[in-house]
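Input C-alpha cells:
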C-alpha cells in the first residue's frame, strides 16, 4: 500500500524572465613606484626567535595564536620567510566569504522555513545553503521504485528522466517516457529533482540528477514484493547510486526474495532509502513491535536508511510510523508541494500538496544524491553514516509525539541537515584525507598537504580505515608541500639501480658500502620503490658512518675516526689511549672517503676528557675538556688535586693538533 495524498493541486503557468546584467567600470591609476604587498600568516618555530625574525624583516605583525602572526609584506619578504629555517610556514592570508544562499526563480521556492504554502522543507533541511557546495550531478542516478514517472511534466521534461524498467511487465522504459499511471512516483520525482530556476513551479533538491523510473506498483498503487525485488536488482545492475522506496505497509511482510534483492543492491554499493509508512493516520505505529517492509528489511546490517516524517515544527508527523530499530533519520513529510500526474485530469503542469513519509523519503534520497555528487568516492555506507552523523537532534520537541510518550531514539539520529552533511569538515594535523577528483591521499601537517603514495602508505603502516574523504574539494584550499617520505631509518632503492638510500630527516641520503656495513644494516631490509618515486624525494648529503667507525684510506697510513658526525685523524697515542683496535679499521677508496663528512677545522681527535698532557718543549700542563686542551693555572692544578705524574708528555706537533680551549685560571 502507498500513502495517500490530499488532492490539493495547482496548475503551473509559464512566465518570462528578462535577465538584467549590470556592468561597472572604474579606471584605476597605475603607479610604477608602489611595492605591492600581500597579507600573510606565518608561524615562528621558537618564541625566543620572535624578535630576531621581526627585526630581520622589519615586520609589523599582529599575533594570532600558537606563535602564529599576521602581517603585510612584499613578495620578496614573503619568499624569504618561506625559506627561513626559523619559520614553520608562511602562507597567504586567504579571503573568506559567507557562503551564498542560492535562490532559484521558481515561484514556490522559499528560504523561509515557516512558509507552509511554499517549499518550507528546503530551508528547514538547509538545502539552499548546501547548494553553495553542490547542486548535484547528472552522473548520479536515483532509482524511484514506485508507480513510474510522468516524464512529460514541465518540471521534469528536460531529459533528466532516463531509462527505466517496468518490473510488472518486465520490459524497459525508454528515456523521457511517461510511465506513471497513478501520480505517486511523479510526486516523489519532483521532490528529488524538479527543474530549478525555470520560473515555474518548484525547485527540486537536485538541480542536476538522473532519475531512473522503476515501475513496480500498478495504477491503483499496489504491487507485489517480487516486482519490487526485481526492480531493486534491475536498478542496481543499471547504475543506480541510490534507490528510493516510498512504499511499504502491512501487506509487505518479511520476504526472502525482497531480502535477497536488498542484500544484492547493498553489496553493489547502492544506498537504499525507505519510508517509515503511515499505517495509522492519527498516531502511527511503533515499528519495533509492528515491523513493516521494506523499511525494516535491514538484514542485520542496517542496509536500509529508514525515514520518518516530521512537520514544520520538527515534530513527528501524527501519521508517521516510528521506531528505534528501523528508523535512522527524519525528514519533513507534511504539506509538501511537489509535482504530480493525475490520471483523472491528465496534464503536464500539475502541482499538489501532499503528506506522508513517502515524501519525506525523497528529501533524504535527494540530499544523499547531493552528497554523492560532491564526492563520488563515498560508499553507500559512508553516505548513510554521514547523513546520520550530521542530523539535527529533535528529541526535545518530541517528548509526547510517540503514542503520547517521548520519541527519544524513535526518530533515528534526528532531522536531516544537508548543510552540515556537505560542509567541509576541519582537517586536523596528522589526518589522512582522500581527494575526490584524483583519489590521491594526503597527509595534513601545518595547514599544508603532503601526498602519500601507496608505497609510503604501506611502509608507514597507515590504517586505511582512518582515511577520510574531502568534502567539496576542500583540499584545494591547502598549499601542497613535498611528498611524504617513508619513516626515518627506512632503506630504499629502485629495481634498476644499485644505489641504496637511507631516509633521514625527511631526505634520502645515499649510502656507501662502508656506511652500510659500519651501521650493521641488512640487505633484507631494503625496500624496492619505483625509480620515479625515489627521484621525487629530496636528496641530502651522503650518509656518514656512525661515530667510532675507523677508516684507513688506501695509500695513506693515517687512521681516521668518526667523531660527532665528522671524520678526524688520530695519533698513535690517542689510538692506544681510547683502546681502539686495528682489527676494526676499514680500508676505503678515495671515492668512498670523499663522501665522509670532514670537519671545518684542521684538528685531530683529542684524548679522552680528563686527560692531562704537556709538550716536551713547554712546561704548561693542559686538561682535555669537551675535546679541547685547556691550560691549567697552578691554583686550579692544586685545587683539583692533580699530580705531575699524571701528565702525559707528547711531541709538540701532537699537542698542536688538539683544538685549544680557554685557559682555566681560577678554581
Amino acid at each position: 500500500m502507498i500513502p495517500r495524498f490530499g488532492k490539493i493541486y495547482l496548475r503551473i503557468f509559464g512566465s518570462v524572465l528578462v535577465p538584467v546584467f549590470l556592468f561597472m567600470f572604474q579606471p584605476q591609476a597605475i603607479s610604477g613606484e608602489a611595492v605591492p604587498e600581500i597579507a600573510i600568516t606565518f608561524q615562528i618555530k621558537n618564541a625566543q626567535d620572535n624578535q630576531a625574525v621581526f627585526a630581520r624583516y622589519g615586520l609589523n605583525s599582529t599575533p594570532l595564536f600558537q606563535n602564529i602572526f599576521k602581517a603585510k609584506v612584499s613578495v620578496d619578504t614573503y619568499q624569504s620567510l618561506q625559506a627561513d629555517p626559523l619559520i614553520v610556514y608562511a602562507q597567504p592570508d586567504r579571503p573568506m566569504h559567507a557562503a551564498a544562499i542560492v535562490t532559484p526563480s521558481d515561484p514556490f521556492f522559499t528560504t523561509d522555513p515557516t512558509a507552509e504554502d511554499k517549499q518550507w522543507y528546503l530551508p528547514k533541511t538547509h538545502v539552499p545553503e548546501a547548494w553553495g557546495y553542490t547542486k548535484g550531478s547528472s552522473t548520479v542516478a536515483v532509482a524511484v521504485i514506485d508507480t513510474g514517472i510522468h516524464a512529460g511534466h514541465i518540471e521534469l521534461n528536460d531529459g533528466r528522466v532516463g531509462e527505466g524498467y517496468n518490473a510488472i511487465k518486465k520490459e524497459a522504459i525508454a528515456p523521457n517516457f511517461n510511465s506513471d499511471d497513478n501520480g505517486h512516483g511523479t510526486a516523489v520525482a519532483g521532490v528529488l529533482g524538479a527543474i530549478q530556476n525555470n520560473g515555474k513551479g518548484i525547485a527540486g533538491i537536485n538541480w542536476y540528477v538522473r532519475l531512473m523510473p522503476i515501475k513496480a506498483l500498478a495504477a491503483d498503487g499496489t504491487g507485489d514484493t517480487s516486482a519490487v525485488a526485481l526492480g531493486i536488482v534491475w536498478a542496481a545492475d543499471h547504475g543506480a547510486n541510490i534507490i528510493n522506496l516510498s512504499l511499504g505497509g502491512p501487506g509487505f511482510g518479511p520476504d526472502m526474495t525482497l531480502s535477497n534483492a536488498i542484500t544484492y543492491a547493498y553489496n553493489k554499493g547502492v544506498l537504499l532509502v525507505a519510508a517509515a509508512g503511515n499505517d495509522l493516520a492519527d498516531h502511527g505505529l511503533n515499528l519495533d513491535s509492528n515491523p513493516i517492509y521494506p523499511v525494516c528489511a535491514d538484514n542485520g546490517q542496517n542496509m536500509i536508511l529508514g525515514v520518518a516524517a516530521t512537520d514544520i515544527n520538527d515534530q513527528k508527523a501524527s501519521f508517521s510510523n516510528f521506531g528505534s530499530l528501523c528508523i535512522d533519520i527524519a525528514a519533513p513529510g507534511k504539506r509538501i508541494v511537489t509535482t504530480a500526474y493525475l490520471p483523472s485530469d491528465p496534464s503536464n503542469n500539475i502541482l499538489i500538496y501532499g503528506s506522508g513519509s513517502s515524501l519525506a523519503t525523497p528529501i533524504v534520497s535527494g540530499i544523499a544524491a547531493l552528497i554523492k555528487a560532491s564526492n563520488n568516492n563515498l560508499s553507500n555506507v559512508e553516505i548513510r553514516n554521514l547523513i546520520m552523523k550530521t542530523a539535527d537532534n529533535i528529541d526535545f520537541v518530541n517528548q509526547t509525539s510517540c503514542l503520547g510518550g517521548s520519541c527519544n531514539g524513535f526518530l533515528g539520529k534526528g532531522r536531516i541537515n544537508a548543510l552540515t552533511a556537505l560542509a567541509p569538515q576541519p582537517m586536523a594535523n596528522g589526518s589522512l584525507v582522500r581527494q575526490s577528483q584524483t583519489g590521491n591521499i594526503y597527509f595534513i601537517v601545518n595547514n599544508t598537504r603532503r601526498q602519500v603514495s601507496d608505497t609510503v602508505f604501506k611502509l608507514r603502516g597507515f590504517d586505511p580505515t582512518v582515511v577520510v574523504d574531502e568534502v567539496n574539494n576542500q583540499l584545494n584550499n591547502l598549499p601542497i608541500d613535498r611528498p611524504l617520505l617513508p619513516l626515518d631509518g627506512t632503506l630504499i632503492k629502485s629495481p634498476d639501480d644499485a644505489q641504496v638510500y637511507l631516509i633521514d630527516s625527511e631526505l634520502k641520503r645515499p649510502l656507501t658500502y662502508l656506511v652500510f656495513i659500519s651501521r650493521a644494516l641488512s640487505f633484507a631490509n631494503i625496500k624496492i620503490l619505483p625509480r620515479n618515486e625515489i627521484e621525487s624525494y629530496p636528496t641530502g648529503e651522503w650518509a656518514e658512518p656512525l661515530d667510532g667507525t675507523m677508516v684507513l684510506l688506501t695509500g695513506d697510513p693515517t687512521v681516521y675516526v668518526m667523531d660527532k658526525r665528522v671524520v678526524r685523524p688520530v695519533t698513535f697515542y690517542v689510538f692506544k689511549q681510547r683502546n681502539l683496535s686495528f682489527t676494526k679499521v676499514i680500508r676505503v677508496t678515495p671515492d668512498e672517503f670523499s663522501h665522509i663528512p670532514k670537519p671545518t677545522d684542521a684538528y685531530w681527535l683529542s684524548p679522552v676528557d680528563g686527560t692531562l698532557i704537556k709538550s716536551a718543549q713547554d712546561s704548561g700542563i693542559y686538561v682535555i675538556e669537551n675535546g679541547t686542551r685547556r691550560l691549567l693555572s697552578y691554583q686550579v692544578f692544586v685545587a683539583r688535586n692533580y699530580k705531575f705524574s699524571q701528565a702525559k708528555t707528547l711531541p709538540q706537533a701532537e699537542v698542536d693538533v688538539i683544538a685549544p680551549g680557554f685557559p682555566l685560571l681560577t678554581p
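Residues 1-34, 95-101 have pLDDT under 50 and may be disordered. The first helix runs from residue 50 to 57.
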